[in-house]
Fold this sequence. Notes:
By secondary structure, the chain is an alpha+beta fold. Helix content is 48%, strand content 21%. The chain has a 5-stranded antiparallel sheet, sandwiched between helices. Strands 6-7-8-10-9 form a 5-stranded mixed sheet, with helices on one face.
Amino acid sequence: MLAVTRHLSVHEVLQVIVRAAAQLLDARYAALGVPDDEGSFAEFVVEGVSDDDWERIGPLPRQHGMLAAMLRDDAPKRLADIRREPEFEGWPHAHPVLKDFLGVPIRDGADVLGIVFLANKRHPGGFTQEDEDLLALFAAHAAIAMTNARLYEHNRELTVVAERNRLARELHDAVAQKLFSLRLTARTAAALAERDAARTVRELAQVERLAAEALAELRAVINELRPADLADGLVPSLRKHAEVLDRAHETSVRFTGDEAIVLPEEHEAVAFRITQEALYNALRHAGARAVHVRLGTEDGRAVLQVSDDGAGFEPDDDQQNGLGLASMQERAVSIGARLDVASAPGAGTTVRLEVPL
């Protein structure tokens, strides 16, 4: 239960519940389904089935057969052979064969948060009444963990909205007003250009000053941005960020990562920031068609790579400072990490960050 309740991400809580339930009752297979309002499941987490097998099984199950019966009856089910039950409707071709079955609803008052069920107990004889009582007790604690995680995520979403509103106000108050002044000054300079050269020069100097101030204000706001989604952990945050960029740009942005990688909070924040900067460069400056973000482990280190097939550049060229390479290096050094940038004109760019585990 300590393992379940220490997580604050709903998805992580579901995964730990399923894994712990399978270990607790010595079941080969375990699953937890969270129903939605459309006759399917919002989430369906499994244990004992490989990723390849799960992909062959197909889409998430619908609320039919035994799953629908459990949602409707709101009571535990303990069966010697699920295949002999009237509600049994079969499985997809790649689905493992289930026999002895134990399912318990996870309830918060009158609401069913989900169903946790186990199948194929490893020891002969199937599931017992003691197993059912134990799983029911576990489900009661799991309901608390799921509710807490949902409340935490909801509170985090409210925090993100408040932060966005604050940034919007700062952008309007600081940057937008300076840009408005800059525009009026530029108009004045244009109007005076032909008849008062000296005043035109003064007005253009004012334009330059306002532009510099607006840029400084904008950078200050950008520097205050925080990767709020890191509450879910580095891997989910990077995956979500890549998905957003993939939808927003014509460039293909993909992410692959090891879910087991967990870094200290400061290290995760730096890794996320460096990834943001590398992706920004690839999308805005490199003209890349595809960008791939990878997170894995190598020789006791977490290795994060951002690779693109864009125009590339000469890393030793001082004119490339505008790409934020110095800032990325400073961030990496601040946590004792190593940052390497491999690039050449016409050969794309790979930013590689190595963080000690």
